[in-house]
Design a protein that fits this description.
The chain is mainly beta. Helix content is 0%, strand content 54%. It is globular, with a radius of gyration of 13 Å. The N and C termini lie far apart (37 Å). The model has no long low-confidence stretch (mean pLDDT 94).
Length: 112
């Protein structure tokens, strides 16, 4: 399985972005579908996960209520809808299903 993240960019504080993670290969092997973020000078952190099959989700406190993770099995893709973006949301966002599957990062910059 290969993962391809996209959708990053420059957005003003309070704005929105939607990130996508497209998977090639056997998508159904990817059970836990996650987004990680690495802010400048900080370690990579898990921010959201969705479990395929039952749709359970988990969010880090820092994004709870502002970000929504979803998945579309028909498109072999999962998403991260990000609203009310803050400067501290700036970073490189990675889609992943650790330990075996990681995408390349997509840069999100929140700045006026």
């Amino acid at each position: 399985v290969q993962l391809q993240a996209s959708g990053g960019g420059l957005v003003q504080p309070g704005g929105s972005l939607r990130l996508s993670c497209a998977a090639s290969g056997n998508f159904f092997r990817v059970i836990a579908r996650s987004w990680y973020r690495q802010a400048p000078g900080k370690e990579r952190e898990l921010i959201a996960t969705i479990i395929s099959g039952d749709g359970r989700t988990w969010y880090a406190d820092s994004v709870q209520g502002r970000f929504t993770i979803s998945t579309d099995n028909a498109k072999n893709t999962w998403y991260l809808e990000m609203n009310s973006l803050r400067s501290e949301d700036t970073g490189v966002y990675y889609c992943a299903s650790p330990p075996n599957f990681w995408g390349q990062g997509t840069l999100v910059t929140v700045s006026s």
